[in-house]
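Sequence in, structure out. Go.
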Amino acid sequence: MKKILLTGATGFIGRHCLSTLSARGYEVHATSTKESIDDQLNSDVYWHKVDLLDSDSLWNLMAKVKPSHLLHFAWYAVPGKYWTSLENLRWVQASLDLLQAFIRHGGERAVMAGTCAEYDWRYGYCSEGATPRVPSTLYGTCKHSLQIMLDSAAKQAELSTAWGHIFYLYGPHENPNRLVASVIRSLLFGEPALCSHGNLIRDFLYVQDVADAFVALLESDVEGTVNIASGRPIALKDIILKLACKLDRQNLVRFGAIQPPENDPPFLIADVRRLANEVGWVPKYDLDSGLNQTINWWRSNLGIK
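Output:
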């Protein structure tokens, strides 16, 4: 049986990988820093409470599990802070320790999570083979630096690896301060949804699709960088208006109430041909079905009918 170590398994993406990995026949070993795990996450999973920033604990875990596969999501991801936090440096080191321990104990295939922030956003359209990597934030720089080291180490160790560039995502368990979650929560509570002008064009993918795409990448023999995205541009205001229409709360949307982040590009979209043609994966959810699922989850989570 294939044995996988999944880091960040209680996080936004990681938790959505658990059932897919189990269904694909993996013996799933999942890491968490939490004292207790949600009952919904317990099925068919071996849980390991470990601080991956502690090198000794990390190496002990790898020696105990000896996984054949590694799917690495764990990182510092506090909204509004992760772009510039020096915690990014600690996670580069932890990820390198994780990689070294994985190689030392006979690992065969590793996939790690990158970000669209590695690209030069002045180009707008992000293609793995053409768009320069010129990150403008510490977060993007640290992720890109790790990807370079992963590639080099893989060649030396004859290890199969891939790197998934995540773009924009939404869905159940999203941080309530992020766009889709914050708009849904405000409208469900009957409060004004304070938004920017909404004219920025982005590439959104439902979180279960993001998780499934990473599992498909893990199971493929594709190496190097792969964009994990929908490839479909949409204006933020169109997502907000869709949510407002679904909840019949159009009167509560306040465009222009807040300023968008400085230096945000007007257009950011992924080239997903490698994901579709080489990995052989396409999304199961379109925007409408993904938003419906997300609204229903927030209704249930907040106890609102």
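Check: The chain has nine helices and 14 strands. The longest helix spans residues 138-157.
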